[in-house]
Amino acid sequence: MTYADFLTRLNPKAMIVPSGAKIKMKDFDPDYTGNFQKSEAQELLQIGVKELAKYQDILYAQDTYALLIILQALDAAGKDGTIKHVMSGINPQGCQVFSFKAPSAEELDHDYLWRSFKALPERGRIGIFNRSYYEEVLVVRVHPELLAKQKLPPQTKDKHIWQQRFEEINNFEKYLVNNGIIVLKFFLNLSKEEQKKRFLKRIDLPEKNWKFSSSDVKERQFWDEYMQAYEDVFNHTSTEWAPWHIIPADHKWFTRIAVGYFIYQKLKSLNLAYPKVSEEHYAQLLKAKEILETEEG
Question: Which of helix, strand or coil describes residue 11?
Fold first, then answer.
């Protein structure tokens, strides 16, 4: 199966939030697999890995664009596994991953986008944010006590702060895209039932115990609040220049081939090409070739 065949069955539009749309989370099925079978997934993933490796090499050589991939999800949705499998063929020199935890004291002394600015990928590279500045309109919204720690001017901490942050994020991403940093945003959409299964597996299997924290169960109690917050995020920050992709995550094998496909499509759309050398440079290459070919022994 080729990637062209994949497109005909994937129905990518069903996973993209159109700019200006008002979506409901209940309309996106976490169990969706696009009529694919698990047996096909490994073959497709390997095709995707090879395609990404090819495009990443050209991206690096051209040194014009950067790609910023944002992964958001609730716990156990498979962000780490998606990064590991989809990016397995990428040259490590051309890719960097940042995982954003609770902000440090230094970070709290700056604006909320400061630490993201510092982590942006250089031209020619792919940057991955495992969680991102979107935590500022998700976790901070679900847990208002976190907002109190941000040392903001009192007049900014009113009901309009979320709308203000949506606008700031949209402007930030527009700025990035205008400067050649392409923003690709994914939400791994896991069902509450599947999350429970994965939590129990982390508890039952010794080799997965380290992945589980009691705070995971505490956060699960805010499931409905998170779903509402995510819905609001999608309705306000899915733009023409940086749309949201809502990826079904109940089946890890499908999540990986879908994410891989969208990254491939984005890189392909940039019309990347290896840089052409100048006539002077080419003449130097020919001279070097002549020296090497006439070298003795």
Answer: coil
Positive or negative CA dihedral for 4, 13, 190, 69? positive
Q: What is the mean pLDDT of residues 184-207?
A: 95
Q: How far is 246 from 12, CA to CA, in rounded Å?
A: 10
Minimal CA–CA distance to 53: which of 94, 83, 84?
94
Spatial distance between the Cα atoms of 232 and 24, rounded to a whole number of angstroms? 9
State how far the Cα of 288 lies from the Cα of 26, in Å rounded to an integer: 63
The residues that bridge with 249 in the sheet, in sequence order, are none
How many other CB atoms sit within 10 Å of the CB of residue 256? Answer: 26
Orientation of helix 38-62 relative to helix 252-269, angle to 10°: 30
Helix (H) or strand (E) holding 142: helix 139-142
pTM, full prediction: 0.94
d(CA 32, CA 43): 19
